[in-house]
Design a protein that fits this description.
- With about 500 residues, the protein is α/β, with parallel strands linked by helices.
- The strands form seven sheets. Strands 10, 11, 12, 14, 15, 18, 19, 20 and 21 form a nine-stranded mixed beta sheet that branches. It has a two-stranded antiparallel sheet with strand order 1-8.
- Helix 8 packs across helix 14.
- The chain is globular.
- The two termini are about 60 Å apart.
Length: about 500
């Protein structure tokens, strides 16, 4: 056997010589209005009624496959050339010019749904190249493969017949990407090269946008988008809630979705997409938040020193314990994912680069702060660091605020400064693939986590018109102002940041 034959045969499942094979011949089907499978059926070599029964079974099986796979996207070519006769795959490659081939129209590749090995007809590029018939749409987009180019007439490849065994073989190999790769190698040796992945230097994650990415009321993403991606083409990501945008400097971003599950699912899909290279990426998890009036105020922007999960553990009703007793207990098994201390050197860099950022404020925000007696609540906004508390439930009220502070101290974290809904979930996903050394989290306070004196928690959560906390518009401006200082510094000084956080 020649080197070429051996190389081709090695791509296929091993053939068991002990298992008899049934030959399948593929021929041109009669013209029909909609795409269908090629008319592939075994020759009837059995005498009498047994042969008739076998033929009926074969026809029934073919009809079922036609019904099941009529809309299958594995539609490779418009014109097919198939081998005829008792030949192995390597022999088919060698016999491309020996005349035992015929051309015919072709609809879909047969995919076997049972426990037998496979059925597949593969084209002859030499005859296809000489035919005026155009190629079909190409492989399924779901497989992530490029469309086929017109084959090279000089390509050293030929038609192939794969034969199905009468009984299942040990591997029971289904139609797979390995066989699809073989088809592409034989039929399209001159495919266009895939573009290299985008080298992501900084990835900015937002959790929601109110309307469009630009031109209307801004949510968490709009100011980032207007600064970095107005001229960018969206990159569709299978499994992510929204597309990713990247500029020429390697700054990328996306809206991930609200809550731990939605946001982390999008982040996982984005990280695993081959269009993007996250091998040296810094992350900024950004968004709005609430703050306890004892430690923060409307408009504050806080870099996370810790991300702590509010949910993972045991919790019970206040009525079941003595007044003032704890209502939460950690649970074993969550130690690695319930609290993340972010890289202190990176947090220090972020604060140093952004501490003097001029922050927007408003008369409405200043008036709202006056309702609270705490000194921290009444002051002007600032850039600071502290613990972000992540909870899928939007908790509110002085009791749950105190419980959040209790959990932060229980885990040895810094003071609780911001309440949000995504940080620990996204961080867990990034940590599994790239660690946490390059993660930053940035939140801007748009409300307090409890009502003012004389205001119930329900009134605070569902205020009447005119009683809402001012400062949302200013806070989303501040988040981008503060965060962009860090983004721009990292990108401008990339040679010093690519290998890790500078000393």
């Amino acid at each position: 056997m020649t080197a070429g034959r051996a190389g081709t045969a090695s791509l296929l499942p091993a053939r068991d010589p002990r298992v008899p094979h049934k030959e399948y011949r593929c021929r041109a089907p009669a013209p029909i209005a909609s795409p269908s499978l090629p008319a592939c059926s075994p020759p009837d070599r059995s005498p009498g009624r047994a042969g008739e029964q076998q033929a009926e079974q074969d026809q029934a099986g073919l009809a079922e496959r036609r019904r099941r796979y009529r809309h299958e996207e594995l539609n490779f070519l418009d014109r097919v050339v198939v081998g005829i006769g008792d030949i192995d795959i390597a022999e088919a490659v060698e016999r491309k010019a020996e005349g035992d081939v015929e051309a015919g129209r072709y609809g879909d590749t047969i995919r076997n749904s049972g426990d037998t090995a496979l059925e597949l007809c593969i084209v002859s590029p030499r005859i296809l190249a000489a035919s005026p018939a155009p190629l079909a749409r190409g492989p399924s987009r779901a497989l992530g493969l490029p469309a086929l180019a017109r084959p090279n007439p000089a390509a050293d490849s030929g038609s192939i017949v794969l034969r199905r065994p009468k009984i299942g073989i040990a591997s029971r190999t289904p139609p797979s990407l390995r066989l699809v790769a073989l088809l592409l190698a034989l039929a399209s040796p001159a495919r266009a090269a895939e573009p290299p992945p985008v080298k992501v230097k900084v990835f900015v994650a937002a959790m929601f946008e109110i309307g469009k990415n630009t031109g209307d009321r801004a949510g968490e993403f709009q100011h980032w988008y207007e600064r970095y991606w107005l001229k960018s083409t969206p990159i569709a990501i299978r499994g992510a809630l929204n597309p990713v945008y990247c500029n020429e400097d390697g700054v990328c971003g996306a809206v991930l979705g609200m809550g731990k599950v939605a946001s982390s699912a999008s982040m996982q899909a984005i990280l695993l997409n081959p269009q993007l290279d996250f091998s040296e990426t810094y992350y900024i998890l950004s968004g709005v938040a609430g703050t306890p009036p004892e430690r923060g105020t409307i408009g504050d922007v806080v870099w996370a020193s810790w991300l702590v999960d509010f949910d993972l553990g045991h919790r019970w009703a206040e009525s079941e314990v003595a007044p003032g007793a704890p209502l939460f207990k950690p649970r074993q098994g969550y130690e690695a994912i319930r609290a993340y201390r972010l890289n202190p050197a990176l947090v220090a860099w972020a604060l140093r680069l952004s501490a003097d950022t001029p922050l927007a404020d408003s008369a409405a925000a200043r008036a709202y702060r006056e309702r609270y007696p705490q000194a921290a609540a009444r002051r002007a906004p600032e850039v600071a660091t502290g613990t972000h508390m992540t909870g899928d439930t939007w908790f509110a009220g002085p009791g749950l605020s105190a419980q959040a502070q209790y959990i932060a101290r229980l885990y040895g974290a810094d003071d609780y400064r911001m309440t949000e809904m995504e940080g620990t979930g996204i961080t867990q996903v990034i940590a599994r693939l790239h660690g946490t050394d390059r993660i930053m989290a940035l939140r801007g306070a748009v409300n307090f986590d409890q009502g003012s004196p004389g205001e119930t928690t329900l009134q605070h959560l569902d205020p009447v018109p005119g009683e809402t906390a001012g400062g949302f518009e200013e806070s989303v401006v501040n988040i981008e102002r503060v965060g962009s200082r860090v983004v721009d510094h990292i990108v401008a000084d990339w040679p010093h940041w690519a290998g890790g956080v500078p000393p």
